[in-house]
């Protein structure tokens, strides 16, 4: 088992490094790996300078967004005890996007506070899902249905702002719904600050996530304050999902697909599951963005569309599996 976990970890690291190098070398400007390395060292290759300024931020942002969304899914699934919980599916991401649009349309000067504003929207959506889905516990199908309703509501409200036409609203709407084009080192800095805080906090609460897999009474006997732990873990999940939405756009199914595959490879111990899911999420979104950027070049397919095509059938599979587990 330890060998499987080790090989899985090194395998995903190798794949991530390989895809990152391929993504950096491929596109409208193509260079070899050696040319890229030489240009980065001596700084004399103009093509490499363009890649460094435009393509590197896109690669880094896509990896950080993927890691944040995947770990957010792991945390939400631990809190809700449901493998169907995902920030994109149950409305947390769309809630973050809508509140960002609403606040910045009213106060355009607050545009650069968008990550924190997104957290408010994500927290509101999470609270709504918890409130409406709770009925003597959290049933996976009820969470999904309530989440879809919350997601549709916030998505519709967000889309209604398309007709306002102001520059601030147009800009933020693109940030919420667009692809990774034109990401810069400022976006990298935002994701590094907020994303690193969220990922570090997720690692710190990983023992709590393990205890939440038990019945509440058993978790309390083990010394865990269950309600406080759920609240804190949910807050970390909302932070990660909201920042990813604010910087990378609305992408669904990452937190659904990656943790499921990660559990098959490394098990359910969150001390290992969380970092592995972060790497898996980074690999998934970077791969989706690279495919979308290159397969129909010079046109681009948003990573969100590729994830929707992949994630839709996977959600159906998960629903059928959930039905079998619960005897329906």
Tell me what the structure shows.
There is one protein chain. By secondary structure, the chain is an all-alpha fold. The protein has a single domain (53-326), classed as ABC transporter involved in vitamin B12 uptake, BtuC (Orthogonal Bundle). The protein has 14 helices and no strands. It has helices at residues 2-25, 33-42, 46-80, 92-106, 114-133, 140-160, 167-177, 185-204, 206-212, 216-221, 226-248, 254-266, 270-294, 303-325. It is found in: Cell membrane. Part of the binding-protein-dependent transport system for heme-iron. Responsible for the translocation of the substrate across the membrane. The chain crosses the membrane at residues 59-80, 87-107, 113-134, 192-213, 233-258, 270-289, 301-319. Pfam families: FecCD (PF01032).
User: What order do the SSEs take from the amino end to the carboxyl end, as H and E?
Assistant: HHHHHHHHHHHHHH
Count of discrete alpha- or pi-helical segments spanning 4 or more residues: 14
CATH architecture: Orthogonal Bundle
The percent range for strand residues is under 5%
Head-to-tail CA distance between termini: 33 Å
At the first level of CATH, the class is: Mainly Alpha
Mean pLDDT: 85
| Low-confidence regions | none
How would the global form be characterised? globular
């Amino acid at each position: 088992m330890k060998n499987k976990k080790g090989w899985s970890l090194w395998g995903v690291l190798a794949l991530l490094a390989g895809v990152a190098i391929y993504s950096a070398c491929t596109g409208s400007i193509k260079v070899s790996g050696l040319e890229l390395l030489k240009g980065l060292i001596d700084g004399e290759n103009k093509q490499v300078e363009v890649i460094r300024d435009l393509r590197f931020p896109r690669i880094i942002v896509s990896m950080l967004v993927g890691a944040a969304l995947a770990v957010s899914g792991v945390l939400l699934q631990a809190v809700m005890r449901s493998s169907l919980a995902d920030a994109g599916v149950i409305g947390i991401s769309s809630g973050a996007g809508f509140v960002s649009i609403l606040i910045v349309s009213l106060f355009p000067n607050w545009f650069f506070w968008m990550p924190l504003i997104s957290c408010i929207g994500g927290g509101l959506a999470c609270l709504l899902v918890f409130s409406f889905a709770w009925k003597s516990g959290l049933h996976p199908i009820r969470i999904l249905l309530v989440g879809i309703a919350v997601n549709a509501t916030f998505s519709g409200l967000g889309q209604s702002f398309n007709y306002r036409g102001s520059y601030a609203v147009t800009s933020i709407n693109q940030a919420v719904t667009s692809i990774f084009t034109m990401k810069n080192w400022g976006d990298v800095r935002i994701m590094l600050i907020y994303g690193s805080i969220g990922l570090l906090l997720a690692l710190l609460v990983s023992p709590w996530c393990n205890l939440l897999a038990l019945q509440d009474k058993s978790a309390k006997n083990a010394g865990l304050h269950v309600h406080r732990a759920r609240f804190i873990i949910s807050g970390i999940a909302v932070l990660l999902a909201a920042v990813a939405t604010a910087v990378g756009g609305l992408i669904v199914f990452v937190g659904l697909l990656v943790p499921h595959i990660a559990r098959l490879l490394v098990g359910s111990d969150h001390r290992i599951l969380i970092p592995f899911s972060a790497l898996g999420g980074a690999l998934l979104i970077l791969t989706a963005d690279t495919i979308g950027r290159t397969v129909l070049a010079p046109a681009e397919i948003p990573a969100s569309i590729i994830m929707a095509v992949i994630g839709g059938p996977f959600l159906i599979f998960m629903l059928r599996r959930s039905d079998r587990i619960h005897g329906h």
